[in-house]
Amino acid sequence: MKTIRLKAPNYTNFSDCLRHHAEEMPDALAYRFLLDGGNNEATLSFAELDQAARATAVSLLQTAAAATA
Asked: Which Gene3D superfamilies match (predicted)?
């Protein structure tokens, strides 16, 4: 039997990993948050998480730029 070895992507940071997953499987479940003691839940796909992370990064950059101006 032949063994197949797959090379894992070499991410340099979490952002790269998230972006890869958002591109390869955008609708896949990334996180499931249990609310109210676990009776209700909220979910995020990789695409939604990537979009939220990018929006947060822009906001942080804008705040930092305003603070140094």
From this structure: N-terminal domain of ligase-like
Domain that holds residue 60: 14-68
Report the alpha-carbon distance of residue 50 to residue 14 in Å, rounded: 11
Q: Is the dihedral of CA 63, 65, 67, 69 positive or negative?
A: negative
pLDDT by residue (tens digit) across 50-60?
Answer: 999 999 999 99
Residue 7 belongs to a domain? no
pLDDT band at 20 (very low <50, low <70, confident <90, very high): very high
Q: What is the pTM of this model?
A: 0.76
Number of domains in the chain: 1
